[in-house]
Design brief:
The complex is a heterodimer of chains A (110) and B (114).
Chain A lengths: L4 E3 L2 E5 L4 E6 L6 E7 L5 E8 L4 E4 L2 E6 L4 E6 L8 E8 L6 E2 L3 E6 L1
Parallel strand pairs in A: 2-11
Antiparallel strand pairs in A: 1-3, 3-8, 4-5, 4-9, 6-7, 7-8, 9-10, 9-11
Chain B lengths: L4 E3 L2 E4 L5 E6 L6 E7 L5 E8 L2 E4 L8 E4 L6 E5 L8 E8 L8 E2 L3 E5 L1
Parallel strand pairs in B: 2-11
Antiparallel strand pairs in B: 1-3, 3-8, 4-5, 4-9, 5-6, 7-8, 9-10, 9-11
The chains are: A mainly beta (110), B mainly beta (114).
Chain lengths: 110, 114
Amino acid sequence: SQQGEEDPQALSIQEGENATMNCSYKTSINNLQWYRQNSGRGLVHLILIRSNEREKHSGRLRVTLDTSKKSSSLLITASRAADTASYFCATDDTGNQFYFGTGTSLTVIP
Amino acid sequence: NAGVMQNPRHLVRRRGQEARLRCSPMKGHSHVYWYRQLPEEGLKFMVYLQKENIIDESGMPKERFSAEFPKEGPSILRIQQVVRGDSAAYFCASSNVRTSYEQYFGPGTRLTVT
């Protein structure tokens, strides 16, 4: 199965701290994406990193990709209460579909 | 500029009834994807459609489930004779070109089968 797996399953931090979550996958990919899902809402695309990229930044987000270890990490710096959500990684190999992990539930305590 | 729209947001059906879930893609998008999210699980791909064509239905259960994306109107995911195990959130996403990896997701339809 191509499904990504996020780690940890749940994370609780104080506002202002950094949050790091990891994603591992099983086979070769074209790209990897991170999504956020607020409770009861749809998914929001955060960032895409291609297989030939090692690091990418977007605002307070930093994503790394290590294809040799088949893993990616998402770092959220200076977290805010509004960052409380579930975060999913999604991998793609054919372009037709993505494979989503089970997500990391992040709680940022004000 | 409306995003991806899904309706209804919540749907309750008794076992054996039919469920119809609708998805209107973003303006200008002609590719639609359906995903299912079971409680405490990640999203799982079901089907990928373009206008009037099913491109990939490898994630779709073989029985009771069907999807269409007509030339006019929204994409429809249809579940016949629903069972309790169909209770889940169903998300659709749209994109604008075949090679676009960025999919825009709707808010989902939460189906509860009683």
